[in-house]
Write a structure and sequence with these properties.
This protein has about 900 residues and is an alpha+beta fold. Among the domains are: about 5-25 and about 740-775 and about 785-835, no CATH class; about 115-340, no CATH class; about 490-655, no CATH class; about 655-735, no CATH class. The protein is built from 33 helices and 21 strands. β15 (about 625-630) and β16 form a beta hairpin. The protein is globular, with a radius of gyration of 27 Å.
Length: about 900
């Protein structure tokens, strides 16, 4: 039993504020020969591949069709591939074999290419104070089965991760779990001997990067690593595992001895790499596995997004509810994660993992109003025009106009990835650790505290073979998605027809309701007049809000409604329809939680500066948004920033029956875990009703999934004192994410700086206590970019608010039972205002907004209020999408 020394919240906050900007001792290990000039700084560091003179040509994309049964078997149907690609790559029908090979390489890039990011994820184990450990997530050790209680047998239910077919737990002849001798005693899955080998492990065809200890104490391996038993995670020999590390290595202690595995100097024999597929491969909605713990490849698709992924459990494998870090991560609902967690912007911002549907229609839509202006480092992004494989007559060449115009779909929720489709793809790889040697010069992962600077594409081009190899492969990835992202229709799912009406009158009614109330944001097929409101293919820039307002006003006219209804009633309405405009919608109209819209990573001078357009950075403010006082619940105005923030792009409604819960953070509706058609429809039914009847929404976070033992319970908590005023003047229930248990921020001693370790801290520090029920984002959204004066003022105001109650808190440190959570909340109530003053996003209600078609939309919007029959008919139509 480890003894952690506890320090009071405000002393802990002071320590956190003082340490956040400091260099840490757990720095990324970079071989001296990989640093130009001997000093690690931006532009001077080579990645491991370039360091050993491996060019991008020596690490090409794999061409084996190992995943041929996935994605409806698209790669086994050359006719379908050619039919999908011919409109974008004219003439490709003359070479169907080459078309299929491109699709195969693109899918392999998505599912098994990690681009050297195993180095980054190994580093993140230390940066997360040991809580994040992908080797532990992969493991089946008895200690992990006891607490927190997972193994391959329940990996889907516990983590929401996809078990790779052809693997099993490693046991001896008596069935006892044992470590793998070929994996230095680690308790990892083992491949079923009845299955063919993983072709990507072939180190003769795909020779790994020989650096450090590789080829000495550990194999060199393949540059795709070894399969692990979890789709999207690959295992790589650790080049830092030298003879000293090998002598110290003890696999049993790694699982059972906290002092051993919490030592930041511990070097493990393997690093774990992560592909895009880790967060995007999921069960095929129309061909789900009979047992979600044991899928076949035919049960999996590359594009739906990891809708069942429990990010809190993956990133904090111990799932310790008394850890404040876990409480922070627990605000990420299944299927959602804060993609700015690593390059933190001090805004806790869980968002759903994007499904990639109908890419051909989405690209064609971008040609109509996706134009952006790119300048400076933004122009360093690759465009389709830069590839000889794209023929001169290809429409793909129309997406870039020299010198500075690009037409692009927008994938991120705030529409900030605006430099072209290939640039959007390449940025994702950086966000999961590609060329982390450079990225970490511009961010301080997880905690921040130092000024953000842009990740420079130019430096990646010069110093990273992995980056250049990724650029060469993402053209194929784009072609794969052009060929392999059709809708998943409910009518094609097992027993799907029983959820659909055959009443044509109801369906026609639903189509008309959709045309008049939804299509303005959720259809890429629109009356031709719609595009005139956005001159220059989008009107993006300082005048955008005016263009939007004029368009929005017109969509309420009889002209729009008549013409739109005619379009929706046509037989081919769903053909080549992305079911979204991809336009940026002001969050002031949506009334959703504003935090996603004011993320700062892509603004000028910040981390993703090179991946967002100048026109995005010139977007105007949307004005004042309504938020609510954390204590009184009274509405108040929040002045929205400009420079790109304040907008959300509408999601596609493609296959909406399979994607509930709703809103960008999965907070409207209820989560069901299996991925079966029945569970998807249960979730859809509850979620769509809450969307269209907002008064049915929950006010308690546990009602979203009712914990591990009560999935799908429909009983909601009482909402007295938990309702919030909308712009309409009416109140609805709302959820504020709160801690579910008294918690502390636990930092093992090994992860603290030397000048803290010399103090009498025992085995580490616990910063706290945080009582059960405090709003998580009151602490999580503290702006750590404060100057010294602001930090000192904050600490003074907090200590003044606590006053003489400090002695009660000291006593509680020694005897936690001496004070109740209610008493603790009362003592700490005085620190709310000081914390709100430095809160980067003081909007706490997470499931509000999107009141279209209801009387919760303000009367001045002039929009129709649907009656119950209208809503029911609309629901029947939505199920057919």
């Amino acid at each position: 039993m480890k003894k952690y020394n506890q320090i009071l919240f405000f002393f802990g906050l002071g320590l956190a504020l003082s340490l956040s900007g400091c260099s840490d001792e757990q720095s990324l290990r970079i071989a001296t020969e990989c640093i130009k000039g001997g000093h690690a700084k931006t532009g001077s560091i080579m990645d491991e591949a370039q360091c050993v003179n491996r060019s991008e040509e020596t690490i090409p994309g794999a061409d084996e069709d190992y995943f041929k049964d996935m994605d409806y078997g698209i790669s086994q149907n050359a006719d379908k591939v050619v039919a999908a690609l011919e409109p974008f790559v004219p003439g490709i029908s003359q070479a169907p074999d080459e078309a299929v090979k491109s699709v195969i390489r693109g899918r392999n890039n998505w599912i098994v290419w990690t681009g050297g990011n195993d180095k980054f994820w190994d580093y993140m184990n230390a940066k997360s104070f040991g809580s994040f450990d992908l080797l532990k997530v992969l493991s089946n050790h008895p200690e992990l089965q006891k607490n927190p209680g997972y193994s391959r047998d329940n990996r889907w239910n516990w983590f929401g991760l996809v078990n790779e077919p052809c693997f099993m737990k490693n046991t001896d002849v008596q069935g006892k779990l044992v470590g793998r001798p070929d994996r230095f005693g680690l308790y990892l899955d083992i491949r079923d001997r009845n299955c063919s080998p993983d072709p990507f492990e072939n180190e003769q065809k795909y020779p790994g990067i020989q650096i450090g200890a590789r080829g000495k104490t550990v194999p060199v391996g393949s540059y795709y690593g070894y399969a692990t038993g979890i789709v999207g995670l690959r295992l790589f020999p650790n080049p830092d595992f030298d003879e000293t590390a090998k002598k110290r290595w003890n696999p049993e202690k790694y699982y059972s001895d906290p002092e051993y595995y919490n030592d930041p100097k511990l070097v493990k024999p393997y690093r774990v790499g992560m592909s895009c597929g880790f967060c995007h491969v999921g069960p095929n909605p129309t061909n789900p596995p009979k047992d979600p713990e044991n899928p076949e490849w035919a049960n999996l698709n590359s594009n739906p997004g990891a809708q069942y992924f429990w990010f809190d459990r993956v990133f904090a494998y111990e799932a310790d509810k008394t850890s404040y870090a876990y409480q922070h991560l627990h605000t990420n609902r299944p299927g959602a994660l804060d993609t700015s967690l690593i390059s933190t912007d001090y805004i806790n911002n869980p968002r759903t993992m994007n499904a990639v549907y109908n890419l051909p229609a989405r690209m064609l839509n971008a040609l109509r109003w996706g134009e952006e202006e790119i300048t400076g480092g933004e122009r360093d992004n690759k465009q389709f025009n830069h590839f000889e494989a794209v023929p001169p007559n290809s429409p793909l060449r129309a997406f870039f106009k020299e010198p500075s115009k690009v037409l692009t779909p927008r994938v991120l929720k705030d529409g900030s990835d605006s430099v072209g489709a290939l640039g959007a793809l390449n940025r994702v790889f950086v966000n999961i650790g590609l060329f982390s040697e450079e990225w970490l010069q511009h961010i301080n992962p997880l905690v921040g505290g130092k000024p953000f600077t842009p990740f420079p594409i130019k430096a990646a081009e010069q110093n990273s073979s992995y980056w250049r190899a990724t650029e060469q492969q993402t053209l194929d990835t784009a072609l794969f998605f052009l060929a392999a992202t059709p809708p998943d229709y409910l009518k094609k799912a097992p027993e799907g027809e029983r959820y659909l009406t055959d009443d044509e009158e109801i369906l026609e009614h639903g189509k008309k309701v959709f045309a008049e109330n939804c299509a303005a944001c959720h259809s890429s097929k629109l009356p031709e007049e719609a595009f005139k409101f956005f001159p220059n293919n989008g009107c993006v820039g300082p005048n955008y809000l005016n263009c939007w307002n004029q368009y929005w006003s017109w969509t309420n006219s009889s002209e729009f409604k008549e013409k739109m209804t005619k379009i929706v009633l046509e037989e081919d309405f769903l053909n080549e329809n992305f079911l979204s405009t991809d336009l940026r919608v002001p969050v002031t109209l949506l009334e959703t939680n504003i935090c996603a819209s004011i993320a700062t990573n892509a603004i000028k001078g910040d981390t993703w500066d090179n991946f967002s357009s100048t026109s995005y950075k010139n977007l105007p403010s949307v004005g004042k948004a309504k938020i609510h006082d954390l204590v009184t619940r009274e509405p108040k105005d929040y002045v929205m920033p400009d420079g790109g923030r304040g907008y959300i792009r509408p999601p596609s409604l493609t296959s909406i029956w399979s994607t509930a819960p709703f809103l960008l953070n999965n907070t409207v509706g209820k989560f069901f875990p299996s991925g079966s058609v029945e569970d998807r429809m249960k979730s859809f039914d509850i979620s769509i009703k809450q969307l269209l009847w907002p008064e049915k929404r929950y006010c308690d976070q546990k009602d979203l999934y009712e914990g591990e033992d009560a999935y799908g319970s429909e009983a909601a908590s009482s909402c007295e004192g938990q309702t919030y005023l909308t712009r309409s003047g009416k109140e609805i229930p709302g959820i504020i994410d709160r801690t579910t248990k008294r918690s502390e921020l636990k930092i093992p001693g090994g992860y603290l700086p030397w000048y803290v370790r010399i103090l009498p801290i025992g085995d580490g520090l616990e910063l706290g206590p945080f009582p059960e029920g405090i709003p998580v984002n009151l602490v999580s959204n503290i702006n750590m970019e404060m100057d010294l004066g602001q930090k000192a003022s904050l600490l003074w105001n907090i200590s003044k608010a606590v006053g003489w109650d400090i002695f009660t808190l000291w006593k509680a440190q020694e005897d936690p039972k001496s004070i109740t959570d209610e008493e603790l909340r009362k003592i700490l109530s005085g620190i709310v205002d000081p914390l709100l003053e430095v809160n980067k996003c003081p909007d706490f209600v997470v499931n509000r907004g999107h009141y279209f078609g209801t009387d919760y939309l303000p009367v001045e919007e002039g929009r129709a209020v649907l009656n119950d029959d209208d809503k029911r008919a609309l629901i029947e139509f939505l199920k057919t999408l």
